[in-house]
Amino acid sequence: MIASMTLRQFFIAGLLLLAACASPAEPPLAASVELQPPDLLILRISAGEALEQAELTAPDGRAFPARRLVLRQPPEAERDDRRPGIILGGSGGSSSGLDAGIGLSLPLKNPFSAARKRPLAAQAEFRLPPELLERYRADPKAWTVYLTFGNATRGIPGPAVE
């Protein structure tokens, strides 16, 4: 009985250890569309990787590559390219005198924690003839958006108009 309890505890501990070492989940892909007449369709994407190409395909098979891609960088606090630095500071008052200090900034990563992936934002702009812009507004799900991230291309139905 005691041996089976110990074996069970080791098994559970092993499963917990494997779960702790697992890589973080990819942020979900989110997409939204804004139409700006007479001919501009703006697609906003939030994904786990940087968007490299975007293409909008009409129900009749015509393809429209993005005319412009704009990538949004994550805020400075979320980026990994921070460097060590030296901080100089001072404080003082009429009764306490003057104090000076020197500090050292060393950005360290915890090697035992898996960093959460933050979604990256991108915007793709498409120019469409006005009649196709209206067709998109009428039935966005009939359209397909092909998004390229690195080596992978993913097709999604056209997002609803905001």
The backbone outline, from C-alpha atoms, is flat
Query: In angstroms, what separates the terminal alpha carbons?
Result: 62 Å
Strand content: 35-45%
What is the CA-based Rg, rounded?
26 Å
Portion of residues within helices: 10-25%
CATH fold annotation of the domain at 28-74 and 118-157: Immunoglobulin-like
Low-confidence residue ranges:
none
Largest sheet: 4 strands, antiparallel
Count the helices. How many? 2
Helix/strand structural class: alpha+beta
Instruction: Give me the side-by-side strand order of the main sheet.
Output: 1-2-8-5
Second CATH tier, the architecture of the domain at 28-74 and 118-157: Sandwich
Mean pLDDT: 82
Structural overview:
The strands form three sheets. The protein has a four-stranded antiparallel beta sheet, with no helix packed on it. The chain has a four-stranded antiparallel beta sheet with strand order 4-3-9-10, with no helix packed on it. A two-stranded antiparallel ribbon has the order 6-7. It is 18% helix and 41% strand. The chain has a domain at 28-74 and 118-157: Immunoglobulin-like. It is flat. The longest helix has 20 residues, at 2-21. It is α+β, with helices and mostly antiparallel strands. It has helices at residues 2-21, 130-138, and strands spanning 30-36, 40-47, 53-57, 63-65, 68-72, 85-93, 97-105, 120-127, 144-149, 152-157. The chain is built from two helices and ten strands.
